[in-house]
Write a structure and sequence with these properties.
Strand order of the largest sheet of chain B: 1-2
Strand content of chain A: 15-25%
Largest sheet of chain A: 4 strands, antiparallel
Order of helices and strands of chain B: HEEHHHHHHHHHEEHHHH
Structural class of chain A: alpha+beta
Oligomer: heterodimer
Number of strands of chain B: 4
Helix content of chain B: 55-70%
Distance between the termini of chain A: 55 Å
Order of helices and strands of chain A: HEEEEEEEEEE
Shape of chain A: elongated
Number of helices of chain A: 1
Structural class of chain B: mainly alpha
Largest sheet of chain B: 2 strands, antiparallel
Number of helices of chain B: 14
Helix content of chain A: 10-25%
Distance between the termini of chain B: 15 Å
Radius of gyration of chain B: 23 Å
């Protein structure tokens, strides 16, 4: 092998010390700059990921744009809903299912979240964010079409099989004076796939 | 062949660019395709539909473009495979090896970008998965996802960014690297072998033209990526069984499905399935490909200084590794069709995923051990591997 690269002074490596220092300094300065520029960007990104369009008292609207009442769905039915009046943001899509109220195995602090067996979960899969779609009413299973995760709506949308690791966040529901289903609040955790800084 | 594919891609791509609208603006479709009339969709998808149904030779250009992209990936991957099997990745060919890997990765990446640009429901699923993987990256995840895709999904701002990458940045890099590789290949291929190749394949121009002709014929005759089938990409709906856009992302898609359903803290980093399958696995794969010459020299070959038999000691190990690795990625590709498989076998999808997880871990080991047994290291006196110059070209 040749002792030195063409043009370089003999006896030195392929890169002089000065060049290494200059390169290192430039890379460091760039990194520092990126850190300063990137931090607010990251904070902003996380803030956007944490919230959805659901607000306290927002009615649930179905695909036709009609607000849903407590008896709009029969037991065994499922529909994808959005908050009334808001934009149809994908992170705000919710699956509303109606099951027989006595089959719901709710956590003690969530018993009131499913009036008359109407349960709502974020439709955004906790694996990679596909909309969970097909619903098997007898078993109470929701299936994600993309990677076949199965969630149990009777048990807090716990993942039963497939690659999803986390339950679908539940939207707390109530019934307003007009008999319409409304959200009590936004989700109490971020919806969709995991991201850095989620907790 | 890669050169010819790139030529065909450039010509068909230029034609497509005349009509493609790289915009996520919402429009109501009123074009020639009846079933989707009145549906809200992105301008990009609407223009892709117009290319398929009303632009003269638009469908031909689209399908030629798609087939040429697939063939390009095949060509550069086959070249990497041949280089690997022949062991032609040591000095002075290390740079050529790295160029080959880069070509392969870039052509796959550009294929993914191209699919994402069409804006149909199938591409929507691919984009969504890529977005989730970007989100999962430690420290920079959310910022990275927002920067790449231009907002929280389903944003359509990624279309502009992806277009710039797809039609300018990556193709220029591809062309430059291909030129480098061809020049390097000329310099490093022995003259005799070059002459033999030419005698067998005819002058290079005829190979170029024949490849182009086959690609155009395929584009005209064989339907590929029917974007009109599933409708536009929408936030609240995904097609099932989920279709695969292109074969070379299937291993990633399979990995995303088979990755363990973890979301656990490992040293302050949350390791999730998408991170493992979509970021760590590809990073390891790419690292292994680039780093292979070093591993091969340092670990498998005992006498790196040379001699005709210098590649013999690690021969069985190398074959076993290759078999095991190929089996692993084979299972991943199979897993990308897990839902279709489950429907075909009439099994619950959860059980198919479980079986495939076992297969992904177990089968590569079986394959590697079996190869080890079949390819035992030969005795020291039998020269089984001739030096590459004496062998017929693969």
């Amino acid at each position: 092998a040749p002792a030195a690269p063409v043009g370089g002074p003999p006896g030195r490596g392929p890169m002089s010390r000065r060049a290494v220092l200059a390169l290192g300094g430039a890379a460091g300065a760039l990194g520092l700059g990126a850190l300063f520029a990137g931090r607010p960007l990251a904070r902003d990104a996380r803030a956007r990921l944490r919230t959805t369009a659901w607000r306290p008292g927002a009615r649930l609207v179905g695909p036709g744009g009609q607000a849903l009442r407590v008896n709009s769905l029969l037991v065994g039915e499922m529909v994808t809903v959005f908050p009334e009046g808001g934009p149809r943001r994908a992170d705000s899509q919710v699956v509303l299912v109606r099951v027989a109220a006595e089959r719901v195995r709710a956590r003690r602090d969530r018993v009131s979240w499913s009036p008359a067996g109407n349960i709502a979960f974020s439709a955004v899969c906790t694996h990679t964010g596909c909309p969970v779609g097909s619903y098997q009413a007898e078993a109470g299973h929701l299936l994600c079409p993309c990677h076949q995760s199965v969630f149990d709506v009777l048990d807090g949308a716990r993942p039963l099989s497939g690659p999803a690791a986390r339950a679908l966040p539940q939207l707390p529901l109530a019934v307003d004076d007009g008999g319409y289903l409304v959200a009590v609040a936004d989700f109490d955790e971020p919806v969709g796939p995991h991201f850095w800084g989620r907790r | 062949m890669a050169l010819s594919c790139l030529g065909v891609l450039t010509v068909s791509g230029l034609y497509l660019m005349l009509f493609f609208v790289p915009s996520g603006r919402e429009v109501v479709y009123s074009g020639a395709h009846g079933p989707l009339r009145g549906v809200e969709m992105s301008a990009a998808y609407a223009s892709t539909l117009d290319l398929s149904f009303s632009v003269r030779a638009g469908l031909l250009a689209r399908q030629v473009h798609h087939w040429a992209a697939l063939a390009l990936v095949v060509a550069v991957t086959a070249r990497v495979g041949r280089t690997f099997v022949l062991g032609r990745f040591q000095r002075p060919l290390r740079a050529a090896w790295a160029i080959g890997i880069t070509l392969m990765l870039l052509s796959m990446f550009n294929g993914f970008l191209g699919v994402a640009l069409t804006g149909d429901a199938v591409s929507g699923t691919a984009v969504r998965t890529a977005y989730a993987v970007a989100l999962s990256v430690p420290v920079v995840g959310p910022a990275l996802a927002m920067a790449l895709f231009g907002g929280e999904l389903p944003t359509t701002s990624f279309i502009g960014r992806f277009t710039v990458l797809h039609v300018f940045v990556v193709p220029v890099a591809l062309a430059g690297l291909l030129a480098l590789q061809l020049r390097a290949g000329r310099r490093w291929t022995p003259v005799a072998r070059r002459a033999r190749l030419r005698a067998r394949l005819g002058p290079p121009a005829s190979l170029l033209l024949a490849t182009a002709a086959v690609l155009v014929a395929m584009g005209g005759l064989v339907e590929v990526n029917p974007v009109w089938l599933h409708g536009p990409s929408r936030g609240e709906w995904a097609p099932a069984p989920s279709a695969q856009p292109v074969w070379f992302v299937a291993w990633l898609e399979g990995a995303v499905r088979l990755a363990p359903s973890w979301e656990s803290q490992v040293l302050a980093v949350t390791v999730s399935g998408p991170l493992l399958a979509g970021a760590i696995l590809p990073a390891l794969t790419i690292g292994a490909l680039y780093g292979w010459p070093l591993v091969d020299t340092r670990v498998l070959t005992r006498r790196p200084e040379g001699g005709a038999d210098r590649r013999r000691p690690g021969r069985a190990v190398r074959a076993a590794l290759l078999a095991g690795t190929a089996t692993f990625y084979g299972v991943l590709v199979l897993a990308a069709a897990a839902d279709a498989l489950a429907a075909g076998l009439q099994l619950p999808p959860g059980r198919v995923t479980a079986y495939l997880r076992v297969a992904a871990v177990g089968l590569p080991v079986v394959a590697a051990v079996a190869t080890m047994v079949i390819v035992r290291p030969p005795g020291p006196s039998i020269p089984t591997v001739p030096p590459p110059e004496d062998r017929p070209a693969a």
